[in-house]
Amino acid sequence: MTRRRRLATTALAAGVIGVIVGGCSTPPEPSVQPPTDTYTAPPVPAGARVVPSLPAPPPLECGDPTASLRPFPSGESPTGPTLDAIRARGKLIVGLDTGSNLMSFRDPSTGTINGFDVDIAREIARDLLGSPNLEFRILSYAQREQALSDNQVDIVAKTMSITCERRERIDFSSVYYEAHQRTLVTAGSPIQSVADLAGHRVCVGEGTTPAEQVWRHQPGAEVVSVPLWSDCLVMLQQHQVDAINADDTLLAGLATQDPYTRIIGPSLGTEYYGIGIGKGNDDLVRFVNGTLERIRRDGTWETIYDRWLSELGPSPGPPPATYLD
Length: 325
Hints:
The protein is an alpha/beta fold and 325 residues long. It is 33% helix and 18% strand. It has helices at 3-24, 81-89, 116-129, 144-149, 164-167, 210-217, 229-237, 248-257, 282-297, 300-308, and strands spanning 49-50, 92-96, 99-100, 104-106, 113-114, 134-138, 155-156, 171-172, 177-186, 201-205, 222-226, 243-247, 261-264, 270-273, 276-277. Strand 4 (104-106) and strand 5 (113-114) form a beta hairpin. Keywords: Signal, Transport.
């Protein structure tokens, strides 16, 4: 073998040995570069604010706040200044919102506004005008009473609970639905009832009644209010609040939009929904109550419930009316 070939063979063998030895050795640790990405907290929905925990004033007493004016006599053709103005206009102006799934929401596939409250308003318009001609005005919860006082809308059909305080400023129809205040949390949350909310943030709708119920049952909770219930769901998904307290009608709608949520705990109280009507519009109050009587009797109420609120279980039946006169 020539000297050149011996050198080449020696070098090749050394390389093979080096590969074998190297394969048995521990590879060097990879070079870890410090992360350069930065993260910011997701924005809070516009209008969200922490509600100061102040002692609630003693509730007003007004007898039975759900008692309303009796409908016009059966077979009579009702008239009155408010009814005549609506008929002359040819449409019923309804205040509601489009963020309360199941009760009043915009269908993304059609763009139409639908829901339990919307169907109730359609029945009122059908009786008054002969067809369900509606014009919708989108209101936040805090705007409902002012819109009626300023005659911006004829009625408000927006999960509006009848209370003595509100009766000081507006009128109501008879009760058309009885809701129950409950709590919504994310699946896997350790919160099992309102008693577990101490030290946790709870979202409620601005201008609604659930905040008082939360503090009544758990004074240690921190309450955050937002203009729309859909904002509460966003904050829950972004871990900016730990729970949502609202009527079961609204929570069921939020739960259908996020399968990783669940409704917990017993009812914190009953909410009696009424159609909001401007103060002194007695003819409209009586007419609306006539429509509500009709849909209780002819099965329309049950049909509307089955269409929108079957998520809550079998129909409880329409609530009976109580009248002042």
